[in-house]
Design goal:
By secondary structure, the protein is α/β, with parallel strands linked by helices. It is about 40% helix and about 20% strand. It contains eleven helices and 13 strands.
């Protein structure tokens, strides 16, 4: 008599690695002097993972969480979204990071509580190698590496595994000056991008990291590092998509924006999802620009991320 057949190891087309956080997002003035915050979820590559899952691709996340209520909430989110969590480690000694979002005339600002977090202790030995080798794209960011030296090494290990297995590597600059000096960040981030196939810098990040201000010059700089696709995020000006053969400027999709938190991450996850689903880079970028705009119409990094049906409807209704 034989027992049940062993379950196959989980796989995912997109594997993201980095730091998830529990989010507290400031809400409009209550009128009674209290400052109210909406609980949600954040973390750049974690947001991208949810965005990709909502576009219909299989996604896994690699990180560490505390054995605390915040970590439980994030696991619950990923399970609801269908994100594979086999590569998530838990720590009794270290907490899950949290952050607060405030809104003002100059836009949104952040207050982070991440020092000593479980994710910052994530290292190369924590990387689920089978998940990475089974991916079509592995996605990381400057925050994934900036939170600690061990986390930086974990990302480099995941990149090496991905390249050896024939997977593509995607990298979002997401420079945070509170995590590390610009010179060190540029060295590490550009070393990672030199091994990537897809670079997803923002204009502000790239200006700091490269010393360049012109979008075309920035695109040229990142193409020279090695990626075959550069999608330079220009905020309200849209995206400059560049390959060695051509480049296209894609205007931002109109929206009634209330909170841009996570818009760039929504672009990243949606862009990668559409590439996995067979879109050309131009088509994927146009889709992702719409997804990012729709996200801005609600508060929080994750809750307003649109599902595929809403993005496709907005695309169909937009002028050609």
């Amino acid at each position: 008599m034989t027992g049940p057949a062993p379950r196959p190891a989980p796989t995912a087309a997109l594997v993201c690695i980095g730091e998830p956080m529990l989010e507290f997002n400031q809400q409009p003035d209550s009128g009674d002097g209290r400052r109210l915050y909406l609980e949600g979820y954040g973390g750049d590559t974690a947001n991208a993972a949810v965005a990709a899952a909502r576009q219909g691709v299989t996604v896994a996340y690699l990180t560490a969480l505390g054995r605390d209520p915040a970590g439980d909430r994030l696991l619950d989110l990923w399970q609801r979204e269908g994100v594979v969590t086999a590569g998530v480690r838990r720590s009794l000694e270290r907490p899950t990071a949290v952050y607060f979002v405030s809104h003002g005339a100059g836009g949104h600002s952040f207050l982070y509580y991440r020092r000593g977090s479980a994710a910052s202790a994530f290292g190369p030995s924590d990387v689920d190698e089978a998940l990475v080798r089974g991916a079509r794209i592995v996605h990381a960011s400057g925050i994934s590496q900036g939170i600690s030296n061990s986390a930086a090494d974990a990302v480099f290990h995941a990149i090496a595994l991905a390249r050896s297995a024939g997977a593509l590597v995607s990298y979002d600059t997401n420079f945070r000056p509170r995590l590390w000096p610009a010179a060190r960040a540029a060295a590490v981030i550009h070393a990672a991008i030199a091994q990537a196939d897809i670079a997803l810098p923002s204009l502000d990040d790239a200006t700091t990291l490269t010393g360049l201000a012109d979008p075309d010059a920035i695109a040229d700089c990142y193409l020279r590092l090695g990626p075959r696709i550069v999608a330079l995020k220009l905020g309200v000006a849209g995206v400059l998509l560049a390959t060695p053969e051509r480049r296209t400027r894609i205007a931002a999709h109109p929206c009634r924006a209330v909170d841009a938190t996570g818009a760039g991450d929504t672009f990243a996850g949606s862009f990668l999802a559409r590439l996995i689903q067979g879109d050309t880079p131009d088509a994927a970028a146009r889709y992702a620009v719409v997804a990012a705009a729709l996200k801005c119409e609600g508060f929080g990094a994750v809750a307003p991320i649109p599902h595929a049906a809403r993005v496709k409807a907005a695309l169909a209704a937009s002028p050609a």
